[in-house]
């Protein structure tokens, strides 16, 4: 038997850990970037979702399965609540009353999941069954009646995706950036993977939940776009500084902080110091 799913989920958790640190470091660098910090939070929340899916798929006892399922659905609810705020911040489509109300709705679902005897998903649980996958791996599925809270959760996630798709479409329409188009396509792929995962949980399909693969596509597109955006901001900042440096009516110098040596001088500096441009670059702060 080839074990693919669990190693793949551990690999996804590791990727999310790296992406979390990478974007959090960028976001905290002055001036702080709220989009980068929120995206780091989204990636961080993917880790418990990935890890808790493993015992759900490998459980051999009903109590173990239900405990892991509660944790997995809790992680998913928190993830989508934060993802909602990230998309609102990134696209600048952020109706505050709607965001607050929907966050409170996710909080209600969170409580319902932890308080329910059979998690958010079931109002009656009938046991476990084994599903044999084409490559020989066996995973566990629960058997039971899906309760109203589970359908409420589906509605909550559908609204988040609707907001994400509309927001990204509006952002792409405003700016016509290929990176925004890539993110829009990635969100569509993520949506399709979530729909497939819901259908598996409903018992319509009996394969592997593809949400982790949708997450990978989403994270790669988002990470690449945010990285590109950061580089563009740095280039713009450098151009503005260069223009200020070159066109300033006051003499300006770029100094090596270690040696005190003058590295650069703007065109006004020679007339203010009495040295020509070549002589200035041979000087230090001491002389």
Fold and architecture overview:
The chain has 287 residues and is mainly alpha-helical. Helix content is 69%, strand content 9%. The strands form two sheets. A two-stranded antiparallel ribbon has the order 1-2. Helix 3 packs parallel to helix 5 (148-175). The protein is elongated, with a radius of gyration of 26 Å. The model has no long low-confidence stretch (mean pLDDT 83).
The CA-CA distance between the termini, in Å, is 75 Å
What level of helicity do the residues show?
55-70%
Number-wise, the strands total 4
State the low-pLDDT regions, or none: none
In terms of quaternary structure, the protein is single chain
Q: How large is the radius of gyration?
A: 26 Å
Summarize the biggest pleated sheet. 2 strands, antiparallel
Rounded mean pLDDT is 83
Shape category: elongated
Strand content: 5-15%
Biggest sheet strand line-up: 1-2
Structure annotation, total helices:
9
- What would you call the structural class? mainly alpha
Order of helices and strands: HHHHEEHHHEEHH
Task: Summarize this structure as a short list of keywords or feature phrases.
mainly alpha, single chain, two-stranded antiparallel ribbon, 287 residues
